[in-house]
Description:
Structural class: mainly alpha
Largest sheet: 3 strands, antiparallel
CATH architecture of the largest domain: Up-down Bundle
Number of strands: 5
Number of domains: 2
Strand order of the largest sheet: 1-3-2
CATH topology of the largest domain: Four Helix Bundle (Hemerythrin (Met), subunit A)
Shape: globular
Strand content: 5-15%
Order of helices and strands: HEHHEEEHHHHHHE
Amino acid sequence: MSTQVENATQILREAILSGTYGAGEKLKEVHIAASLGVSRTVIRLALSSLELEGLVAHTPNRGFRTKRFTLDEVSDAIILRGEIEAIAARCICEKGISDANVSLFRDLLDSMKTVLASGFSQREARLKWMELVAEFHALIVSASGNTAIHSTIAHLSRIPLVAPHSVVFDLSSDDFSLERVKRTYETRVQLVEALIQRQGGHAAALMIGYAHQACRNKRASVEGMRLGKPVSAIPGLGLISRSEER
């Protein structure tokens, strides 16, 4: 049964994040079980796993519903992620960064520079950028050597738009998106140099500043989307609401 539960959990996770189920929508166990060809017990266990991830909520005698997140909740989680990544940066500086990790960081920066040169009008370029951002931040966490940081970041990243690679591109203005992303690239260049020079305070400040800028960018993107401005599709975007809409 464990394999069935894992498969059902993955399918439901993808369905929720892709918008198949809207924010606050009731998840009907009987219908889901029938559509996946598994028992209600399997679905109940899968939904319980997703509850631990924070994507669904259970109410006794009323069943499961998808979670609804406010922009304030997302912003708070991004700021917390930035503070934890700042600790990771300090850890790297305290023990010294390895030559191997310096090479990995520089390779990532080179790849980012190449993508920047092409612009973000094509979906492939946007996906590549998100992939590189994910690798960059994962390297910060792994280079810190702190498993508690890794598990905490992983938990926070389950909240929609909180993971560092959840970049929302403004599709109405390629130039605007490009300039905004260029600034984040320049911050990462400065961060790598600070890590190499073992400037823990500066590296931590850059991580926190990056998180605050990410909050402003994502809030502006979500608000723009509600005004009809086209933005790139991001998993979980449909679960976000204004505080007053909750």
